Structure formats: structure tokens, C-alpha cells
Amino acid sequence: MRSLLRAIQGGAFATVVMTAFRLPILRSLPPSANFWAKYVGDGHPEEYTGMGIFLHFLYGISFGALFGLLYPRLRLPRSATETEGVVWGTVFGLALSVFGERVMMNRLLDIDLDADAETVFHASHAVYGIALGTWVGSRADSTSSYGEYEHGR
């Protein structure tokens, strides 16, 4: 139960970091509102801004929880911490990005990003993965505390 809570926290943290990275660059909300407008609502995506943000966080937290629960099953050495978390988190974030672009955006939403938007889309998912992996990796060994780190040595 404790690992699930840490995984959920990591998903929330990573989603905030990703959104803070993406929003000022693209100056647009994530395409979750498009999903709601097309499959649930009957209006334009702009009418579902709140629901779009909610769905974006729901996805981010859910996939973060999944990563957090899968991470210990990688059977990394006991010394595995942030470094391995960053590597595997980045792989996970980019896998989500490819799925998001190819399946969610292209097939389900009929959205084809221009080259710059596509780059930022993938970069923001890499940022998500880095933040998520760092969070989960830093909490993988529940016997360690912050005070035990030897920074700068």
C-alpha cells in the first residue's frame, strides 16, 4: 500500500512538472479536452478545458502509479536509485509519448501535429519520465532517508 501511495505521488509530481514545461511553450492545453469533446461531450474542445486538465492529470497519475508499481519488479541492484529511475523513467515516458501520438492523437483524435509541436510533445513526455523516474528511484529503498545521502562526494 505504501509503494502504491508513493507511485501515485510520483505520477502527480511528474504530471505537474510536465505540464509546467509544456504549457508556456505550446501555449495550449493538452489534447485531453479533444478526447472528451469527441467521445463524451457534444461541443468544442475549448468548452471542456477543466475536464481536459482533469483527464490529463488522471492519465499522468495513473501511468505514474503503474510505473511505480512496475519499477521494483525490474530487479535492479539494491543500490539502484535515481540514476536507474531516470533511465527507466525516460524510456517509460517516451513509450507513453509514442503511444500518445500514434494511437491517441493520430488514430482516435485525428490530430496530426506539426514538426515543432511534435518535438515539444515528445520532449514533454521525456520530462515527465525523468521527473517520474527520479521520484520513484529516490524512494525505491524505503530504508534510506534524505539525511543518509552524501551529496558532493
What can you see in these coordinates?
The chain crosses the membrane at residues 12-30, 50-71. This is DUF1440 domain-containing protein. Pfam families: DUF6789. The model is unreliable at 146-153 (pLDDT under 50). The protein has helices at residues 2-26, 32-39, 49-70, 82-108, 115-138. Helix 1 (2-26) runs antiparallel to helix 5 and helix 4 packs antiparallel against helix 5 (115-138). The chain has one domain. The relative contact order is 0.18. By secondary structure, it is mostly helical. The protein is elongated.
How do you describe this structure in short?
The protein has 153 residues and is mostly helical. The chain has helices at residues 2-26, 32-39, 49-70, 82-108, 115-138.
Q: What are the secondary-structure elements, in order, as H or E?
A: HHHHH
The count of β-strands is: 0
Note the gap between the termini: 34 Å
Number of helices: 5
Estimate percent helicity: 55-70%
The 3D shape can be described as elongated
What average pLDDT do the residues reach? 88
Q: Which stretches of 5+ consecutive residues score pLDDT under 50?
A: 146-153
Largest sheet: none
Topology:
Layout: H1 2-26, H2 32-39, H3 49-70, H4 82-108, H5 115-138
Helix pairs in contact: 1-3, 1-5, 2-3, 4-5
Transmembrane segments: 12-30, 50-71
Protein name: DUF1440 domain-containing protein
InterPro entries: DUF6789
